[in-house]
Amino acid sequence: MEHLMNLDLTFIPGEFLESSIFGGIFLLSIFFFSFILALIAFVILKQLANRLSSANSNSVLSEILHSIRKSVFVLILLIGLSFSFLIVGNFESQLSQIVYDFSDLLKTVLLLMSIILISHSFVKVIGVFLKWYLENIAEKTETTLDDQLIRPLMRLTPVVIYSIGLLVLLESLGISISPLLAGLGIAGLAVALAVQPSLTNFLAGTYVMTESQLKIGDYIELSDGTAGFVIEIGWRSTKLRSILNNLLIVPNSTISNSVILNYYSPSPALNVRVTCGVSYDSDLEQVERVTLEECKRVQSESLSAIKDQDPRFGFDSFDDSNISFWVFMQATDRIGSFTLTSEIIKAIHARFLLEGITINYPVRTLQFPEDIKGDFFKSQT
After folding, report:
1. What global pTM score does this model have?
2. 370 inside domain
3. I need a surface site. Which of 116, 246, 292, 373 has the fewest CB within 10 A?
């Protein structure tokens, strides 16, 4: 009689080895022992997970133990069945012959179930870890890369692990996977060419996220004039909200190839420059003094002004009608710059009216030679 494997069973009396009843009892005994062992392992893992969860010392380990305890239970049963069939297959009874005749089928079934269980356990463990990281770590990091990356990974991981398990199973069954891998490579190349625009945006989105130069809430302006607040950074596109409260969807490839002006980097504070001019008859020392006084007053009262940056003043040029000057102040952010500019203009205008400082309308002074000037006035009289 052929055996599954040559094992030394001399410690078992020969009449037992030839008895199908004894073989059946031995098979059931090993299975029962495996069941008890699997049940003990299940209870131990459950109790350990509950203890870790109640102690709150390592919640991720507790979740992992909870997720794999059923797989461990079934895997121990499968090991027990394999061991029992291996031993009974070396008996001399009719039962051992039946086990030998169906050995290939039994090996295939046990191998299939083992690969499925191991793959399922890996999926559970990695899924629990990614979920724990997303809920406990990702929210505390400054970058949004992990928030954007974890969710696709949670959907992609089961596909990858089960695919690897399937390839391992086919290889174990003697089926060559080389043609399959070659076919998948050609199919992948064809798909990559078909979805090239989407793939370009995806890679550009990866670049935008890893660079961490853009954050939710930043106000940016692209080189083509597109501008708005960043409200979402996705794998294919970035969504902006314009000043007019419109939604702008910009492909990530456009963003990665554009010069970007980020008004919120390195800080949201924004310099405000207000220009004005006074007549040539004005006392420039007085103009500088009253302008700075009004700017400091606006700075102390306005919610849109940075308090620790003093206003700056300077005369700029001799223009046709006025001597021009500028004022620099710092606003809290992009929106605050509009409010602060308006407050500065109103304050300077009101103070100039009070002080009698003239802001001329555009005028032009004509100068004539004395002889021409005399002839002109004579002709008028």
Report:
1. 0.50
2. no
3. 246
Do 258 and 277 fall within a single domain? no
Q: What are the two backbone dihedrals, phi and then psi, of residue 318, each rounded to the nearest 5 degrees?
A: -90, 110
pLDDT-derived band at 94 (thresholds 50, 70, 90) equals: low
CA angle, residues 322, 323, 327, in degrees to nearest 5: 115
Distance CA 262, CA 227 (A): 10
As given in the structure block, the two tokens for residue 284 are 């420039």
Q: What percent of the chain has pLDDT over 90?
A: 19
Contact between 19 and 96 under an 8 Å Cβ cutoff? The reply is no
Domain count, the chain: 3
Kindly give the interhelix angle for 59-88 and 20-55, rounded to the nearest 10 degrees. 170
Q: What is the mean pLDDT of residues 284-297?
A: 94
Identify the domain boundary among 188, 223, 238: 188
Q: Which domain holds residue 225?
A: 214-262
Residue 313 reports pLDDT greater than 90 = yes
Contact 198, 236 (CB under 8 A): yes
Taking each helix axis from N to C end, the angle separating 178-194 and 196-211, rounded to the nearest 10 degrees, works out to 90
